[in-house]
Amino acid sequence: MNNSLFSMDDPDRYTYDPRTAPPDFGHAVRKFWGFEDDYVNLNHGSYGSLPLPVLAQCVKMSLLAEKNPDRFHRVTYMPLLAEARRQVAELIGTQNEEVVLVPNATHGLNTVLRNIEWREGDIILGGEYLSSVYAVPCIKPTYPVTTSLDHL
Q1: CA–CA dist 91, 72 (Å, integer)
Q2: What does pTM read for this prediction?
Q3: How far apart, in Å, are the Cα atoms of 21 and each of 25, 45, 118?
Q4: Residues 48, 93 within the same domain
Q5: pLDDT digits (tens, 9 = 90+) for 15-25
Q6: Residue 119 to residue 123: CA distance in whole angstroms
Q7: Residue from 60, 70, 51, 45 nearest 134 by CA
Q8: Among the three residues 98, 116, 137, which one is the final residue of a domain in this structure?
Q9: For residue 88, what are the CA distances in angstroms to 6, 66, 97?
Q10: By CB atoms within 10 Å of each CB, which of 1, 11, 30, 113 scores lowest?
Q11: Does 92 lie in the same domain as 113?
């Protein structure tokens, strides 16, 4: 097993300067993940591996919360969340109020789909991910919908 993930031999793997241009996608960003050298990750969505700079920030936030959980949850957390939403809104070109942070894509899709007033005969159009794998099977027992893949 490659233990390079647990060493700080290359500290640049754990940090990224957002004031600089991001690296190109592909091999240039691989160094920001803790994958073993001979591992080719073809299914990122199932397990949600974090880039090491994100993982390092998560650890930092967890330690901050553990230092004084009451203060973190009552005082510190909401301004941090508001700032994260502001940055995402700026990145995608929308208003802060339009940004909602969710734990993962399935949670987000389920939140949206469960807040639509479905009627008998409604059809959800979408690819395999949306229609058959994660989100729709969670709502179909409750709502009278079919998907574009139900007819195949």
Answers
A1: 26
A2: 0.66
A3: 12, 25, 43
A4: yes
A5: 777 788 878 88
A6: 9
A7: 45
A8: 98
A9: 29, 26, 11
A10: 1
A11: no
